[in-house]
Specification:
Layout lengths: L20 E10 L4 E10 L4 E5 L6 H9 L6 E9 L2 E2 L9 E4 L11 H12 L6 H14 L21 H12 L6 E5 L7 H16 L3 E5 L5 H6 L2 E6 L2 E6 L1 H10 L10 H8 L7 H16 L2 H16 L9 H26 L3 H13 L5 H31 L5 H28 L3 H17 L12 H4 L6 H14 L19 H7 L6 H30 L2
Parallel strand pairs: 3-8, 3-9, 6-7, 7-8
Antiparallel strand pairs: 1-2, 1-4, 4-5, 9-10
Organism: Panagrolaimus sp. JU765
Protein name: ABC-2 type transporter transmembrane domain-containing protein
């Protein structure tokens, strides 16, 4: 019997948990070194149908498998696949996605509803009751328009008569969406279907996408009507992106590449033909394809891809990548904030240590109970654990939230640099406290001193363009050396930055230019650590001699 709704009963799939999916600079090579994908980037948002298109061997299936993290044995993968702006852990995409393969495999003796019921028992959570599973099956049958064939046997193609090819494909979709996935991947879903059935299948995919899913499919030869139904098309050729964007925009782009699309012709056929390598004309075809791909890479369309990727990050609260002009400025400011936060809190906090203890220290020192050096060392050793843990915690909590380089070396370099910055600030705070008669005097001295050090740290004033009479101050400032190490550490990994100034000014093309424009030196990354260690020792020697002198004068 067909599915019917009883009074008060509604068969509806639960709302889809919407997600964004993006992929950045994907490179896939065989163990022998043959490239299959060469820097592929793209993105899809909830409600979109994205078609991966291209001639045979262009890389469509390889890209689909890379996004799915399937069938990648013997391949080397570089680049990022991001879900809600965050890298996907290996094997985790299966929890939010479903995959409809090209070949439909069913038990031909089962009916449509029996097949879906069996799949529901296998796929759905064990906590769901039998009634809930049946409701989910009925909802899927209605969603995919299978109510008229739900009691028909599936059959086996050419052996046992059963449902049509279009119904079989919709049944494959139905089985996959039982778990209500946010992402639906399809490999050649229209292959083997006539034009009418193919159109119905794509309409079905559009309906599934309209519920908030992301649908990504490979397709070989779509009709012109189907081509226009896609929200985005990604044309691949020789493992490169030839175009990614709306179908209507693809015609404009290929026109600019001297690809003529005659009237009353299927544009998809013409475009795929121009991206194919024809036997005996390999060199000519490869030159044409490289020209088209190079044009796309330098075009505004690729910039739109990066905007979509940025939008995917922002949907989830993911920080900006730091590859755009504003992102570079934000990252530089965040790095300097690390130094300022650790410096001011540490320097002023530690100055309460000595003034209150000084009368007792002088008396016990004069009585010969302990040498002054022991007292000073005890103060240094007592603050080291506190200010070490404080810096590590701050960086560990905020580093990835801010959007700094996702690299183990970069992370630990940041931790160590911030730790040395905090120790430097603590040494100066202790030194000023040692030579000041009261806490109020220590704070009054430290305020202007830290302001000068901050202004010569490299963010507010370019260290290479300071007047000669004041430029020497930077060499007394741990702000400058800590900031140099942090900037070099972050931007040495950025080989490409967006450079699209709208005001006619210049901007940096890569991380190395960011470092150079600040008059920093990449070779100083670790030398600055040595400088700060020496700086800490010298300042502590000054502090120790200062309190020793005060004790002698107090006799």
């Amino acid at each position: 019997m067909p599915v019917t709704k009883e009074p008060g009963e509604n068969f509806h799939l639960p709302p889809v948990k919407e997600v964004s999916l993006s992929w950045e600079n994907l490179r896939v090579t065989t163990k022998a070194g043959r490239p299959l994908l060469k820097g592929i980037s793209g993105a899809t948002l909830p409600g979109e149908v994205v078609a991966l298109m291209g001639a045979s061997g262009a890389g469509k299936t390889t890209l689909l498998n890379t996004l799915l993290q399937r069938n990648l044995k013997g391949l080397e993968i570089e680049g990022d696949v991001l879900l809600e702006g965050r890298p996907i852990r290996k094997g985790s995409i299966g929890s939010v996605s479903a995959y409809v393969q090209q070949e439909d495999l069913f038990i031909g003796t089962l009916t449509v509803k029996e097949h879906l019921t069996m799949q529901a028992n296998l796929r759905l959570h064990k906590n769901m009751t039998k009634e809930q599973r049946n409701e989910r099956v009925n909802a899927v049958i209605l969603e995919l328009g299978l109510e008229n064939s739900q009691n028909s046997r599936i059959g086996a193609g050419g052996i046992k008569k059963g449902i049509s090819g279009g119904e079989a494909k919709r049944l494959a979709f139905a089985a996959e969406i039982l778990a209500n996935p946010a992402l639906l991947f399809c490999d050649e879903p229209t292959t083997g279907l006539d034009s009418f059935m193919a159109l119905q299948v794509v309409k079905c995919l559009c309906k599934l996408a309209a519920a908030g899913r992301n649908v990504v499919l490979t397709v070989h030869q779509p009709s012109s009507e189907i081509f226009e139904m896609f929200d985005k098309v990604l044309f691949l050729a020789l493992g490169r992106v030839a175009f990614f964007g709306a179908p209507s925009q693809s015609l404009i782009f290929f026109n600019s590449c001297d690809v003529v699309i005659p009237e009353h012709c299927n544009p998809a056929d013409i475009l795929i033909h121009n991206l194919a390598v024809i036997p005996h004309h390999e060199e000519e075809c490869q030159q044409r394809i490289e020209k088209i791909c190079d044009s796309y890479q330098s075009s505004v369309y690729e910039k739109n891809v990066e905007k979509w990727q940025e939008f995917c990050r922002k949907r989830s609260g993911e920080p900006i990548s730091g590859r755009g002009r504003d992102g570079v400025s934000n990252l530089k400011g965040a790095l300097f904030y690390y130094i300022s936060e650790l410096t001011y809190a540490t320097c002023f906090g530690i100055q309460t240590f000595m003034p209150a203890d000084f009368p007792l220290i002088v008396r016990e020192h004069h009585d010969g109970i302990y040498p002054m050096v022991f007292y000073y060392l005890s103060k240094v050793l007592s603050y080291l654990p506190l200010f070490t843990i404080d810096g590590i915690l701050m960086v560990s909590i905020s580093y990835f939230l801010i959007g700094f380089e996702k690299n183990v070396s970069a992370f630990f370099t940041t931790v160590i640099t911030c730790m040395l910055v905090e120790w430097s600030a603590a040494s100066v705070g202790l030194m000023v406290s040692a030579v000041s008669p009261t806490y109020a005097v220590a704070v009054s001295v430290s305020g202007p001193l830290l302001t000068v050090f901050s202004l010569t740290g490299g963010l507010y004033t370019n260290v290479g363009k300071m007047p000669h009479w004041v430029s020497w101050v930077q060499y007394l400032s741990w702000f400058r050396f800590g900031y140099e190490s942090l900037v070099v550490n972050q931007f040495r990994f950025k080989d490409k930055l967006d450079c699209l100034p709208s005001d006619g000014t210049q901007c940096e093309r890569d991380g190395h230019e960011v470092v150079q424009n600040l008059w920093f030196d990449e070779e100083n990354l670790y030398w600055n650590w040595l400088y700060m260690l020496v700086y800490i020792i010298i300042v502590h020697m000054i502090g120790y001699n200062g309190i020793l002198l005060r004790a002698k004068l107090s006799r």
